[in-house]
Amino acid sequence: MSQSAEHQVAGPFPGEGAPVDARTRLVLAAVEAFAAKGFHGTTTRDIAAAAGMSPAAVYVHHRSKEELLYLISRHGHESTLRLVRAAAASKEDPAERLVAVVRAFVVHHAHGHTSARIVNYELSALSPEHQRDIADLRRRIHTEIHELVQAGVDAGVFHTSNPRMTTLALLSLQIDLARWYREEGEWSPEDIAEHYCELALRMVGAR
Amino acid sequence: MSQSAEHQVAGPFPGEGAPVDARTRLVLAAVEAFAAKGFHGTTTRDIAAAAGMSPAAVYVHHRSKEELLYLISRHGHESTLRLVRAAAASKEDPAERLVAVVRAFVVHHAHGHTSARIVNYELSALSPEHQRDIADLRRRIHTEIHELVQAGVDAGVFHTSNPRMTTLALLSLQIDLARWYREEGEWSPEDIAEHYCELALRMVGAR
Q: Does B117 share its domain with B193?
């Protein structure tokens, strides 16, 4: 896959006026279909119909339904990892770094809750090789947060007897958010981020 | 369904020496099959084979694959609700009540992580009527925890600006535990319960 093609697949919002290419249309149609009916409940025909294409056209652009799921999962995890790394590197103070990470993660996950749900709950539908790739990305996200928590403990500003389990709990808040968040709910992603930053600081014993 | 038949379906461990009846065998086989291949990836034939029965026999005992999923989901949510209610009623002090609830919930969810995963992630495969039943049970569990958090705030022993969002976060820890918990992991359910009680007290601002 060329760099520019990958860029087109990765971006949910193509440049204004630019035509949405067939590969991207299929990925976006697959997100909607998997979200509505689950990976196993979705046929290639469903995806093709949602993209306004013939079932045969799907195979011209993507090897299989599983490859579409893998592209969605890889993109979701890669963008989360990038965002967590950027937020963690944006400050010096461990508490400020944690707030930056939680805020970025919550807002991103709430806005992208549809694909986040697919990315989190359809992992077992991936091929073993693709599962390993995604597990590796998840470990890197986990490591970023764990190192941040540990840095706070080492600096004497966080107080937790088990930084690794606290890291898992912090990740649980983010992951499960994609399950319960509703666009029509009373709280905006920013409202949730505000409260979750407070919860995260309490969980690591920053106050 | 008679009371005694329901009891047999509900209990994962039939009395010593008692034969496991066909209905129960099918429910247990369905738990394993749904966990391994997802609801949509599982056929009635898979369930029958795992229970050592013919595909036709499934329909003698259960109307459909969806009915099996509903039984598993209803049992899972009902037992969680019972357990949360019993723990919440076991003490007077809000902090002690919260600890009792978190401990019971974590231990139960870690031990039953296989069915908890199915119960949490296959909800969309239920019929609309069954989804409403389960949503009602989930609301009751949510209400129990929310009332407990609010009681602590009212008594001046918990300090949180948003008891309802904090309740959702507490539930996220429990729900996501079923996703990441592994029996072969280094922490026992009791180890996790210990740390999660500490996290929960921090989240509600009890200390």
A: yes
